[in-house]
Amino acid sequence: METLIQDASIEWSDLGGNIRRKIMAFNEEMMIVKVEMKSGAIGASHHHIHTQASYVSKGVFDITIDGTTQRLQAGDVYFVPSMVEHGALCIEDGELVDVFHPLRKDFL
Amino acid sequence: METLIQDASIEWSDLGGNIRRKIMAFNEEMMIVKVEMKSGAIGASHHHIHTQASYVSKGVFDITIDGTTQRLQAGDVYFVPSMVEHGALCIEDGELVDVFHPLRKDFL
């Protein structure tokens, strides 16, 4: 497994809906992923067993967790406990760095 | 626990050695932390049971994991499996976003 990962070394995967994803690194315990979203793109509300810690690396998003929505911008953070409903609406072109525990096998 | 966290809402803690830390969010499963380092600051080599996924949010660092060093810059990532030795040397004033599994109780 790579442990020192330059951003330019990994290609984006187009998910449609003006969303792209890069899987940066993972093992069975954790996975770190970049998600690029264009203004207006929607990360539909969903939940999963994985705990998620996310960093807003670029842009502006309205993030909803468990029914509460807040506008977050580059530098802000959100945290999603296991099985808690969450979603994202991109307000200005941006990027999220999502970290999951355990591994999101569904992304592989 | 806060789940939607604006960066400005949390104060830095000075750790000395030109390093500051902000604990952004956590539960028993994960913790997300910002670390600010000035050029020349050293995160001494160490290891811990926690798996760690880190995002370079600002600046330039020489990151060493298990004896291999690579220069990483804003946008790059590194990943540290449990008990693997790692350290950081800040080359240009910067910031890391460190995510751990499980909770780093030693930070509280």
Give the secondary structure arrangement, pairings included.
The structure is a homodimer of 108-residue chains.
Chain A: E1 4-5, E2 13-16, E3 19-26, E4 31-37, E5 42-46, E6 51-65, E7 68-73, E8 77-80, E9 86-101
Antiparallel strand pairs in A: 2-3, 3-4, 4-9, 5-9, 6-7, 6-8, 6-9
Q: Any key phrases for this structure?
A:
homodimer; mainly beta; Jelly Rolls; 108 residues; 8-stranded antiparallel sheet
Q: Can you summarize this structure?
A:
The first copy, chain A, is mostly beta strands and 108 residues long. Chain A has strands spanning 4-5, 13-16, 19-26, 31-37, 42-46, 51-65, 68-73, 77-80, 86-101. Chain A has one domain (15-107): Sandwich (Jelly Rolls), CATH 2.60.120.10.
Describe it for me?
- Two copies of one chain form a homodimer.
- In chain A, strands 2, 3, 4, 5, 6, 7, 8 and 9 form an eight-stranded antiparallel beta sheet that branches.
- The radius of gyration of chain A is 13 Å and the shape is globular.
- Chain A has a single domain, classed as Jelly Rolls (Sandwich).
- Chain A has 108 residues and is mostly beta strands.
- The first copy, chain A, has no helices and nine strands.
- At the A-B interface, strand 1, strand 3, strand 6, strand 7 and strand 8 of A face strand 1, strand 3, strand 6, strand 7 and strand 8 of B.
